[in-house]
Amino acid sequence: MAIGGVIMDIVSPKVLGSATTVVFDGVIAGMRKVNAGMTVRSFPIDFKKIVSILMIVVVLYVLSGIFQLVQQVVMTRISQSIVYQMRKDLKAKITRLPVSFYDGHSKGDILSRAVNDMDNINTMLQSSLTQLITSFFMFFGVLFMMLTISWKLTLLALLTLPLSILVVSFFAPKSQTFFRAQQHELGVLNGQVRVV
């Protein structure tokens, strides 16, 4: 579903570009007639061809939406099933733990793992993993499409990749540190709410 959606998304702009080419060719043909001294009431633009191209683009976008919808439904079912099983396993584990475990761990930390961490796993499976798969295929699909249009512009665009990698490698470790601190504080907050 991800591959199908990406293919539709990548092909659509190129098909739409052919409509621009039809308009451009009509304008150029009209300008040639004007320059030749002929009277031109309207430019010879093939509107029937433009309408047929637009219909193809609409169909491509509808198919892309269907592929993405099916992909989202499948990933939602998978993620909910996995998280449901994990919650059952966690409940079984909590009932087997000795009392000394609860004396050594705060209620907020245990509650945070049972609720917030499970929700984060659910979000990762449902959204982040889907975006990762789609982005992977989108990158190579767009790269291929760019190469078919202009290899020089493609190389120029690829020159920005090292800069992007440097920025991500600088900010990613810092965000991980903040995320861990957030999870810790969330556990403390849950413990305070539980006590109250």
UniProtKB/TrEMBL annotation:
Origin superkingdom: Bacteria
Membrane topology: Multi-pass membrane protein
Subcellular location: Cell membrane
MF terms in GO: ABC-type transporter activity; ATP binding
GO CC, any one term: plasma membrane
Alphabetical UniProt keywords: ATP-binding, Membrane, Nucleotide-binding, Transmembrane, Transmembrane helix
Domain named ABC transmembrane type-1: residues: 1-193
InterPro entries: ABC1_TM_dom (IPR011527), ABC1_TM_sf (IPR036640), Type_1_exporter (IPR039421)
Sequence intervals crossing the membrane: 50-70, 128-147, 153-172
The protein, known as: ABC transporter, permease/ATP-binding protein
Organism: Lentilactobacillus hilgardii (strain ATCC 8290 / DSM 20176 / CCUG 30140 / JCM 1155 / KCTC 3500 / NBRC 15886 / NCIMB 8040 / NRRL B-1843 / 9)
